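Structure tokens please, single chain.
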Amino acid sequence: MKTTPQLSKLESILELAKKSGASEAEVIQKKYTKNPVSFENNKLKSLESNESSGIAIRLIKNNRVGISSSTDPDALESIALSAIEASEFGPDATFEFTKEKLNPEKENKLPELPLENLVEKGTKIIDSLKIFHKDLLISGGFDLSASETIYLNTNNVFGKRSKSIFSTGFYGNLVRGEDFLGIYESKDSLENFPDEVKIKNTLLEKLNYSKDIVQINTKKYPVVFSPHAVLSIFISILGVTLNGKVIQQGISPLVDMLGKELFDKKLILTEDPERGTKIAAFDDEGIKTQKKDLIKNGVINSFYFDLSSGSRVMPQHDSTGNGLKPSLSSAPSPSLTNLIVQNGNTKNTYKDIIKNMKEGILVDQVLGAGQSNTLAGEFNVGIELGFKIENGEIKGRIKNCMVAGNIFEVLKNITEISSDQEWVYGSNLLPGFLIDNLTIGAKQ
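Here you go.
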């Protein structure tokens, strides 16, 4: 570990904390840079870059935890003293900071942003999409973001991680009378800007499918969920119920279900911190991340914890390397990195499943997924973008429809999982799901 001016600042904060009575302390510094090329309503909006950075400390004094943070790089003494003061009213410390050393990481230099090229590409995409309808409004664009995290604690554990994320995404908005159509498509990568032409073609395909509106009746249908919908409904609910803090609080229905088969044997849900845009060698508590099967062949195989929740539930394990800070001023909490649902053992791709359906519904985008009773596994969501399938063909868009159910029932019998997978938002590698006999509610 080479001492740099940046590192000296962090070391001085830890020294101040120790001198002020802290038995242990950790400090984390985060830097973010965003370089957007954004369009709004068919016009170039912004080329302005922005940067942010800050330092946070967490310490233990008299067996209580104190936290403080600042975006002022010179506020070293005040950060330490504020955390000392906060510890007087802080929660009990049921954990110790890690002593396990971290492996050094290679430096990640921020690539140059080809501004003129991206402006030209974005303008071409918008011009080609506008041909669909004169009132179609396109927003979105490109973004090259970079982040750097430095971790240091009083046990001499030091870690540094950095990455750049390339994002390409566009949103089409079309209002015709009382009909509102919103379609989006975006991709993220650690290597280069995702192909904007492929994204444009996907948007055009969905726009063409949406030309005709098809009326349906409220009844049970075979329902195909796109990878986007699989994430919005099923994976989001599973993420909540497997969360170590929710387990610790005793409010998850999975509290006593470790090792029990609750879902279809085809369902395998894995967290992999080495794949996807949320790649991370260690979490915000300086603990090495690890690949883990959360659900394996339908069996609840693992929960995910930070230090605090892990020490209360599984003291022999403490943390699973999932302690990430939702914001600089917040304490770390159980959070997931990259999620992968194993593709099915069938030969049918997502589009093959659609072609094989005599009658059914395709759900692609949903509204209100976060408003359901997720802790009970329930979902009751509006279908923002969905289609009627007849004899293997998409006949048109459905409107004013909802899909509801409970994942603990629905995922017990997954009719089919597609053989192909798609990266959704760069950090979720997901197939499509086919579920038979789901009620689609239609407003007449």
